[in-house]
């Protein structure tokens, strides 16, 4: 069974012309919970799959999921959490259907930037300023007329959260105290923001500076994972089930972007490094699936209980496998 089919069969429920996904397999406490930001990644994954394997039935289900988000948010499409809003903005940009909600989300991100800090708070009224709010927001804003704000957010992350010892991105800062946790998805969106800013750069110097940052992050991630054969750290179930998949998505983008210039050996080496990380993790997840389930941790086989029954875990695996499809298409 494919990762996509497993997610649809276990978690996605249709209700007339709308659809949404439950948070876990039937029988798990809280299984019917609806998660806004998980749905952002669900929509994103469906769009990736549609690009790789066009299918009219998937396109119809994607429209139903879109209506489901509209219904569940009472047409507002926003939450008090700016990281969630950033993820949904990226999903709608990827969907590219001229969604009228998109400008509202982009404006909400731009207006939420605290000028005294130079960054977005994690949520309305929060004193936490973190990478999972600011880097996705930078990616989203980079593709709009608000690119200047994206440049500022990306620079704030680099100056405030980059770990000088490892080159990795730390989680956030609250009351002038840096949260030192290193999560996979923070590395992914930092790579993604650098790539988006390189793509939209006004000149070659700016483009190269952003590409250098993306390349440095790929190398830092490779060193981080080297002791484990390239397998990405696991963050378990719940929200953590998505973390490694998000990094894989942006490693695939790095694979594609750095493969563009066939005459630049340094860029080609970065592309190969990024692709190897995606491939190693996709292969491990595929080889350790059991009974249509993928494991939360690619170092072990899937279990029919616990974290592996979370939508986030199965969706994270699906994102990783789609990332491998995208990266392999450009390097084959």
Keyword list:
332 residues, mainly alpha, Glycosyltransferase, 3-stranded antiparallel sheet, two-stranded antiparallel sheet, 59% helix
What does this molecule look like?
- Helix 1 runs antiparallel to helix 12, helix 4 runs parallel beside helix 6 and helix 11 packs across helix 12.
- The chain starts with a helix and ends with a helix.
- It has a single domain, classed as Glycosyltransferase.
- The chain is built from twelve helices and five strands.
- 59% of the residues lie in helices and 5% in strands.
- With 332 residues, the chain is mainly alpha-helical.
- The mean pLDDT is 95.
- The strands form two sheets. It has a three-stranded antiparallel sheet. A two-stranded antiparallel sheet has the order 1-2.
Short description:
By secondary structure, the protein is mostly helical. Helix content is 59%, strand content 5%.
- Computed CA radius of gyration, to the nearest angstrom: 19 Å
Q: State the end-to-end distance.
A: 24 Å
- Helix count equals 12
Spatial strand arrangement across the major sheet: 3-4-5
Return the CATH class. Answer: Mainly Alpha
Helix-strand sequence: HEEHHHHEHHEEHHHHH
* Structure classification: mainly alpha
Mean pLDDT rating? 95
| CATH fold-level label | Glycosyltransferase
């Amino acid at each position: 069974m494919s990762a996509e089919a497993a997610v649809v069969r276990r978690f996605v429920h249709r209700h007339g012309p709308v659809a949404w996904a439950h948070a876990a397999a039937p029988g798990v406490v809280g299984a019917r919970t609806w998660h806004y930001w998980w749905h952002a990644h669900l929509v994103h994954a469906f769009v990736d799959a549609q690009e790789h394997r066009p299918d009219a039935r998937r396109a119809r289900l994607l429209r139903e999921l879109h209506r489901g988000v509209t219904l569940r948010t009472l047409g507002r499409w926003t939450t008090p959490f700016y990281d969630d809003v950033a993820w949904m903005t990226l999903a709608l940009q990827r969907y590219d259907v001229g969604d009228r909600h998109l400008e509202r989300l982009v404006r909400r991100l731009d207006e939420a930037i605290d000028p005294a800090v130079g960054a977005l708070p994690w949520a309305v009224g929060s004193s936490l300023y973190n990478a999972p709010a600011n880097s996705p927001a930078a990616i989203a804003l980079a593709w709009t007329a608000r690119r200047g704000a994206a440049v500022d957010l990306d620079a704030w992350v680099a100056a405030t959260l980059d770990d000088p010892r490892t080159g990795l991105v730390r989680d956030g800062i609250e009351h002038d105290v840096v949260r030192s946790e290193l999560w996979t998805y923070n590395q992914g969106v930092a790579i993604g923001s650098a790539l988006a800013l390189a793509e939209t750069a006004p000149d070659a110097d700016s483009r190269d500076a952003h590409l250098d940052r993306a390349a440095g992050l790929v190398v830092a991630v490779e060193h981080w994972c080297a002791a484990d054969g390239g397998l990405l750290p696991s963050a378990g179930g719940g929200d953590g089930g998505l973390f490694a998949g998000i990094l894989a998505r942006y490693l695939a983008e790095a694979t594609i972007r750095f493969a563009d210039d066939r005459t630049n050996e340094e860029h080609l080496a970065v592309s190969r490094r990024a692709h190897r990380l995606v491939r190693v993790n996709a292969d491990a997840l595929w080889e350790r699936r059991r009974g249509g389930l993928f494991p939360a941790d690619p170092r072990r086989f899937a279990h029919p209980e616990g974290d592996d029954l979370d939508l986030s875990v199965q969706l994270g695996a699906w994102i990783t496998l789609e990332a491998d499809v995208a990266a392999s298409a450009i390097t084959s």
